[in-house]
Design a protein that fits this description.
The chain has 173 residues and is an alpha/beta fold. The chain has two domains: 121 residues, P-loop containing nucleotide triphosphate hydrolases (Rossmann fold, 3-Layer(aba) Sandwich), CATH 3.40.50; 39 residues, no CATH class. The chain contains four helices and eight strands; from the N terminus they run βαβαββαββββα. A six-stranded parallel β-sheet has the order 2-5-1-6-7-8. Helix 1 packs across helix 4. It is globular and about 55 Å long.
Length: 173
């Protein structure tokens, strides 16, 4: 039986810079030969199709699932007959886990799995970690001490990558 893939989330309030951090972090991890799978939660209706494109037209015509593929990539659009919040475990199961070393997750902050909390003082939001036992570290622009949790500089992407690599080595051995 295959060992489950390590899953690590990034939890924060909107506007904290989750996507920007991940955009800078992923190249550092892939440079270490870590193959990344990514799951991102969207809180609103979104569309990756463009009006007028064949896949958009076919989906709007009533196809519940449209798989578009080329030699370079593929994408599956699935319509939910009844709107429902996505389940993280079901989304991860859709990934090609044989070609992934680590699943990174943006969002799903209320689902129990290991997460790094991102916090920016300027947003004036409370910390999540006192209430969330699944937070394994806090990356912020102002906290030097997070109690028992490692405290990371949210602006030091290399240090966050090093923390993740250490965590990944522990999680996989």
């Amino acid at each position: 039986m295959n060992k489950p893939k390590p899953v690590l989330g990034f939890a924060a309030f909107s506007g904290t810079g989750k996507t920007t951090l991940l955009e800078n972090l992923i190249p550092l991890l892939t440079a270490q030969n870590i193959r990344i799978g990514m799951v991102k939660h969207a809180h609103h209706e979104f569309d990756i199709d463009k009006p007028g494109k064949d896949s958009y037209r076919l989906r709007k015509a009533g196809a519940g699932q449209v798989l578009i593929a080329s030699s370079q990539r593929q994408a599956l659009m699935t319509e939910n007959a009844t709107p429902q919040e996505p389940r993280l475990d079901e989304l991860i199961a859709r990934l090609d886990l044989d070609n992934i070393d680590l699943v990174l997750v943006e969002g799903f902050k209320h689902v129990p799995f290991p997460k790094i909390e991102l916090h920016r003082q300027a947003l004036g939001k409370t910390l999540l970690h006192p209430e969330d036992p699944d937070i394994i570290a806090v990356a912020s622009d102002h906290l030097a001490d997070c109690g028992k949790l490692p405290s990371l500089d949210i602006n030091d992407t290399a240090a966050i990558a090093a923390f993740i690599i250490t965590w990944l080595n522990i999680a996989t051995h």
